[in-house]
Design a protein that fits this description.
With 253 residues, the protein is mostly helical. It is 81% helix and 0% strand. It is globular, with a radius of gyration of 22 Å.
Length: 253
């Protein structure tokens, strides 16, 4: 935790702004090459399946063997040494629930209804369309310029910790938004994300609450307290980000 706090302090504002060019390069590389790479991998997978009817199962078996030989003991040791913490509790629950690839497959089949499959397929198509539009419109570079500006502006005053947006960082971000409009390509993605979130809440809230209750029931008192503290922090920070965004939404076609 102390290492993380030192790192986010170092990366507040100015360091984030200076790193944007690296993210921009990666983003433009993905726009140029991601589809071609996917098609190459897909073709290779199909060739392997054609040559070996059991390729998929063989791959799963090999992955399971590699996990058991190299990581299973380490995972069990971590769960034991971290018992009573959120991560330790979650690791123990996962180890108890999933002891083999078959357990994972059974869990997926239990919860992957036709409705979920249909929604997942629609979401994938929507994501592909958004990604194509983003790349075609050159949104990576326009977003990079905006981020360089806002991160540079936030670098100063009391905004010296990238893990805490509420407070001084929020104020400095708001003052930047007052003079600089959010690029419309970002706004489009944000709005689609909000629509998707609303759909999930409307159609899957009961299932999500059920999963949450099941996980919560398996946590220790300390683990549950950690989870609640994280939830409260996320809700608070999201509220501050949302307040700045809502007050400065751009006018886009």
């Amino acid at each position: 935790k102390q290492w993380y706090q030192r790192r986010v302090a170092i990366t507040a504002g100015g360091q984030l702004a200076s790193d944007v060019s690296n993210m921009e390069e990666l983003g433009n590389l993905a726009c140029a090459q991601a589809r071609g790479c996917f098609l190459q991998v897909s073709a290779a997978m199909e060739a392997c399946k054609a040559a070996n009817a059991d390729f998929v199962q063989d791959t799963i078996d090999a992955a399971e063997s590699a996990y058991k030989e190299n990581f299973e003991d380490k995972a069990a040791a971590f769960a034991k040494s971290s018992k009573g913490s959120l991560l330790g509790d979650l690791a123990s629950m996962a180890l108890d629930r999933f002891s083999s690839a078959d357990d994972i497959q059974d869990f997926i089949e239990e919860h992957l209804t036709e409705g979920v499959k249909s929604d997942a397929s629609a979401a994938a198509e929507e994501a592909q369309a958004l990604a194509k539009g983003w790349c075609d419109d050159g949104c990576t570079s326009s977003t990079a310029r905006f981020l360089e500006g806002i991160f540079g502006h936030m670098n100063g005053g009391g905004c010296d910790d990238a893990s805490e947006f509420c407070g001084e960082c929020q104020s400095r971000a708001a003052s930047y938004f007052a003079r600089n409009q959010l690029p419309c390509c970002i706004e489009k993605v944000v709005r689609r994300g909000i629509v998707a979130y609303d759909y999930v809440i409307a159609n899957y809230s009961e299932a999500l609450e059920s999963y949450g209750a099941a996980v919560g029931g398996g946590l220790s008192a300390n683990g549950l307290a950690e989870a609640q503290a994280i939830r409260d922090r996320v809700v608070e920070e999201f509220g501050c980000v949302s307040a700045v965004y809502s007050a400065n939404r751009p006018e886009c076609a």
